[in-house]
């Protein structure tokens, strides 16, 4: 047990072997053979046929080691373990992986039947009639790129075999998934697998499921050799083969009346899920839902496709797809306003869902959605209306005359979004998660959880809640992050569950103890559990509507300035207004929002990354352009304060800042950008094109 996990690379175990991964040399094909030099007794090559249990992770169709079919370049096919790092690398370089190459599928802009992992066909109302009666129709295609998590330590695991149990050290957001996957792969009871979680840093969902795969590799090495095995990816291998935020392409057509109100909406979603379907239903439905934005849609048609491509499995990044969907609809809303000659903020207010009682997916919304108030708050903070009108006049003026070559271009954009908390769909664990609290005879309180926080502030909030409810000193409250099997399954650290679902369980458990403490003898132990609701969604599939019943909302404004010679964008400022219910820690909330805003600006403006022939070039790790401290603009945050239940906020900046940034650059350059990341080169090429169009 421990309450402050450290890095995996800091753990040293006497007599440990090291592990390296042999990988597929092709993006698609059939594995023919794996040959290696004659190995000394201390070195062992482990193939798929050596796996004693099932060759697959729990709840995800991911082979631990490829046996026949090869689905992406770099897919693990074997593990080589041995005591000396230099000799291990030498032997690994002499191994030959022979494969029969096949034609890979590397694009995701066509829904070919044999590549569809999941699809949605949603029809609400009469969209065909709406389009036939519309005063105007606006159409756009929007694309979001992949994004690297760039966490503080590459993914790794240490496995320590004993006849009684297999001990796993790994930095994971989901210890129980590691435990269950390792037990399935080794073919042993899950109670014989112990997991000691390490420090995840701020993983942005990059350590949600992938550590389970690496833990299985290390566990196989330890199980077969009966010795400890350490397998930690190099930064280069982690960068090239680990999951990324999945890319998406979204086509939206909207039917409008004469005032610009939405009459009908036709959406097609293409989501690149990579070689294996990880959280496909969760991600696809969230992209589809996000592509409706925060707006009133009377008649809807949605076609959604989660597509298989021959690149590494793609997945979540600080959320499961809402951000991709919101980018598309928020950019589309700004395009509508631009075509109609309206202020984008006013168009949003006229079409917002502030008084809507349910979302299109079928989830009832308990609290009002304060989109209009947030738009007003953020507009006031940033002086949006004055700036937008001024920059719009300058943009229109430049269309008809050659401007001053020294004049900088400025633009400002606005966008809004919402988020829920927790999964829509659950796996074999049924989505039932718990915390356990014990009040001892000496008055000390212990909160036991398997959840691994990205920082200690979640635990500080729990201590304060316990102290307030039970009238004890915070110093007497201990939060223990315990191994699976010792602590109850608290579920993964994702989708703002810690600050919403688990915090509520802690509060309820403390209230139960308060009722019992003067009736029952100490110690008193209470376990509180979350049970998902079972509601039918827009395709009559069961989902947990509680995940979307209490929505946090945000509006964001971004202002940019662009150099007229080099077309280099400079972000002058970002402003965010948030309704997150009861704020348990303002300091933590502001820090979390600012961090997410910086990452969102990076995704929108500079973090260009792409697969080339199914691979991420090695040079990309050195060229990957994450924001540095000098690149961070002033970021102002304000809250709509209320005493409603705490709500998640971490995803909000990712869902509204990129569209606000793209709109700001579009206004500055007078060119409708419809993709992110939107790099300096993209702006330069559009700017040069505009110069050629300017009359002499």
List key phrases describing it.
696 residues, alpha+beta, Aldehyde Oxidoreductase, domain 4, 3 domains, seven-stranded mixed beta sheet, 16 helices
Task: Give a description of the structure.
- The chain is an alpha+beta fold and 696 residues long.
- It folds into 3 domains: 188 residues, Aldehyde oxidase/xanthine dehydrogenase, molybdopterin binding domain (Aldehyde Oxidoreductase, domain 4), CATH 3.30.365; 323 residues, Aldehyde oxidase/xanthine dehydrogenase, molybdopterin binding domain (Aldehyde Oxidoreductase, domain 4, 2-Layer Sandwich); 99 residues, Aldehyde oxidase/xanthine dehydrogenase, molybdopterin binding domain (Aldehyde Oxidoreductase, domain 4).
- Helices cover 30% and strands 24% of the residues.
- The chain is built from 16 helices and 26 strands.
- The strands form 6 sheets. A 7-stranded mixed β-sheet has the order 3-5-1-12-9-10-11, with helices on both faces.
- The protein starts with 16 loop residues before the first strand and ends with a helix.
- 53% of the residues are buried.
- The mean pLDDT is 94.
Share of β-strand residues? 15-25%
- Please give the largest β-sheet: 7 strands, mixed
Please estimate the helix content. Answer: 25-40%
* Head-to-tail CA distance between termini: 74 Å
Which class of the largest domain in CATH terms? Alpha Beta
CATH topology of the largest domain: Aldehyde Oxidoreductase, domain 4
Structural class by SSE content: alpha+beta
């Amino acid at each position: 047990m421990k309450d402050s996990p450290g890095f995996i690379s800091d753990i040293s175990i006497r007599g440990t072997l090291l592990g390296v991964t042999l990988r597929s040399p092709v993006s698609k094909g059939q594995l023919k053979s794996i040959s290696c030099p004659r190995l000394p007794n201390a070195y062992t090559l482990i193939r798929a046929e050596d796996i004693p249990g099932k060759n697959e992770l729990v709840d995800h169709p991911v082979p631990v080691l490829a046996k026949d079919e090869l689905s992406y370049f770099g897919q693990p096919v074997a593990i080589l373990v041995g005591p000396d790092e230099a000799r291990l690398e030498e032997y690994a370089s002499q191994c030959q992986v022979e494969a029969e190459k096949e034609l890979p599928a590397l694009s995701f802009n066509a829904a070919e039947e044999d590549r569809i992992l999941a699809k949605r066909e949603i029809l609400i109302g009469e969209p065909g009639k709406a389009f036939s009666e519309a005063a105007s129709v606006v159409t756009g295609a929007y694309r979001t790129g992949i994004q690297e998590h760039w966490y503080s330590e590459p993914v790794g695991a240490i496995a320590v075999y004993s006849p009684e149990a297999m001990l796993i050290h790994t930095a994971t957001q989901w210890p129980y998934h590691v435990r269950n996957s390792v037990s399935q792969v080794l073919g042993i009871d899950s109670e014989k697998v112990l997991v000691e979680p390490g420090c995840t840093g701020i993983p942005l969902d990059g350590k949600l499921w992938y550590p389970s795969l690496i833990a299985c590799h290390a566990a196989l090495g330890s199980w077969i050799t009966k010795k400890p095995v350490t397998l930690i990816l190099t930064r280069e291998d982690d960068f090239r083969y680990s999951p990324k935020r999945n890319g998406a392409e979204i086509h939206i057509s909207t039917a409008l009346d004469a005032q610009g109100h939405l009459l009908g909406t036709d959406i097609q979603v293409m989501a690149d899920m990579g070689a294996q379907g990880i959280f496909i239903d969760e991600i696809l439905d969230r992209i589809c839902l996000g592509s409706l934005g925060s707006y009133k849609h009377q008649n809807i048609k949605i076609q959604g496709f989660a597509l298989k491509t021959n690149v590494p499995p793609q997945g979540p990044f600080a959320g499961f797809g809402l951000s991709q969907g919101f980018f598309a609809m928020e950019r589309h809303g700004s395009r509508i306003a631009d075509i109609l000659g309206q202020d984008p903020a006013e168009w949003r207010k006229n079409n917002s869902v502030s008084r809507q009682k349910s979302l299109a997916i079928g989830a009832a919304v308990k609290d009002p959605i304060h989109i209009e108030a947030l738009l007003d708050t953020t507009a006031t903070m940033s002086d949006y209306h004055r700036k937008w009108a001024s920059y719009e006049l300058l943009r229109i003026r430049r269309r008809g005359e050659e401007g001053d070559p020294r004049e900088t271009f400025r633009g400002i954009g606005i966008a809004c979004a919402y988020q829920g908390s927790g999964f829509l769909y659950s796996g074999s664990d049924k989505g039932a998660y718990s915390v356990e609290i014990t009040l001892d005879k000496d008055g000390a309180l212990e909160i036991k959880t398997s959840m691994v926080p990205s920082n200690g502030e979640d635990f500080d909030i729990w201590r304060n809640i316990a102290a307030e409810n039970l009238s004890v000193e915070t110093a007497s409250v201990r939060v223990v992050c315990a191994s699976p099997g010792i602590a109850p399954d608290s579920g993964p650290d994702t989708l703002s569950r810690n600050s919403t679902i688990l915090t509520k369980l802690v509060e309820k458990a403390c209230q139960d103890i308060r009722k019992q403490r003067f009736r029952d003898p100490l110690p008193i132990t209470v376990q509180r559990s979350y049970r998902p609701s079972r509601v039918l969604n827009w395709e009559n599939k069961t989902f947990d509507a509680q995940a979307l019943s209490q929505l946090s909302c945000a509006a964001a404004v971004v202002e940019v300035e662009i150099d007229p010679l080099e077309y280099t964008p400079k972000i002058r400022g970002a402003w965010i207004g948030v309704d997150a219910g009861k704020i348990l820690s303002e300091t933590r909330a502001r820090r979390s929002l600012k961090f997410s805003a910086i990452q969102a600006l990076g995704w929108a403006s500079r973090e260009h990354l792409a697969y080339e022939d199914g691979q991420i070039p090695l040079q990309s790790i050195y060229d990957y352009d994450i924001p540095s401290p000098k690149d961070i603009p002033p970021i102002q945050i304000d809250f709509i304060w209320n005493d409603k239940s705490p709500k998640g906020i971490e995803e909000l900046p990712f869902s509204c800042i990129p569209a606000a940034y793209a709109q700001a650059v579009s206004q500055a350059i007078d060119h409708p950008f419809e993709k992110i990341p939107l790099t300096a080169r993209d702006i330069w090429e559009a700017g040069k094109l505009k110069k050629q169009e300017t009359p002499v």
